[in-house]
Amino acid sequence: MKGEEPEPIESSERGNGAEAAVRLHRTGETERPRRRVLLLHGLSNSAAVWNAVSRGWPEDTEVWAADLPWRGGFDATWSLTGDSSRWLRTAMGLVPGGLDLVVAHSLSASLLLDALGNGSLDPAEYAASGPGDVEPCRRRPPGTMFVSPFYRPDPGDFEWESIASSLHDFERTIRDGIRLHAGGRLSDEKSEELGRLMCRKIGPYGWLSFFNLYLSTPWLLTERITSPCRVLVGDSDAAAPPEEGFRLAENLPDASARSLSDCGHFPMIEAPEEFVAVASRFLAELDDTGAPRAVPETLNEVSA
């Protein structure tokens, strides 16, 4: 019934007792959806990190946000089980009717890049159903938007000092996420306290899962990621430097990058209207072409 909060779609795998490992929440709905978008959060966040971008999408677009095993407060053993990208496949497979766009932030962007590059995830398998029940192999694969990704194409880009600086930036990013999500309701001292607590819950294996993905990006087979992509960065992101996002876009076959002004690692919170505008424009471009289209130039900034 319209106006009621729809029940989430849950995976069969459980953690934390009876809690589902993956849950999908419909944040933007329409009676006759023509396009479907899935939002994938980063480490220690949750589906709620997308609350600010739940509105403003085209009227025919249905938007889903996933709670993933690396969400804050969930079972921290996700980082001990090997292929964490399988949870992305689970989330993508739960969306009714298939997908037109996948938006992945931070850790989820790293996992998705890795899975697309090594071939363990075929985006065409999750393509939206078209008129006439088109065979999946003939459907256009969903577009992908990587938000605040981590990427260094050369092993020489990592030095011994990179470990300490990345760990420091990680702790600061966790605190920033808590502060931004609270919307000014927490003092700096409380944000710091909660940030330390969250880092302890993530633990060394959780952080190493992220950092090992980061260290492996020089060997990412970007030429295999042929579906249409966009990279969105904040121009003030201290955790994932914006120039890394631009370099990623340059190395992907069909991609462009955009930077949002006065944004850090969480542009979906810091500039929600601009964020939705960029994603909606990408959807429109996919519709206009009917097939992946290369965008040769990498834009430095876009406004809503």
From TrEMBL:
Annotated AB hydrolase-1 domain residues: 37-277
Biased composition (Acidic residues): 1-10
SUPFAM superfamilies named in the record: alpha/beta-Hydrolases
Region ranges (Disordered): 1-29
Pfam families given in the database record: Abhydrolase_6
Gene Ontology MF terms: catalytic activity
InterPro entries (alphabetical): AB_hydrolase_1, AB_hydrolase_fold
Database matches in PANTHER family: ALPHA_BETA-HYDROLASES SUPERFAMILY PROTEIN (PTHR43689:SF8), HYDROLASE (PTHR43689)
Name of the protein: Pimeloyl-ACP methyl ester carboxylesterase
Organism of this sequence: Actinopolyspora righensis
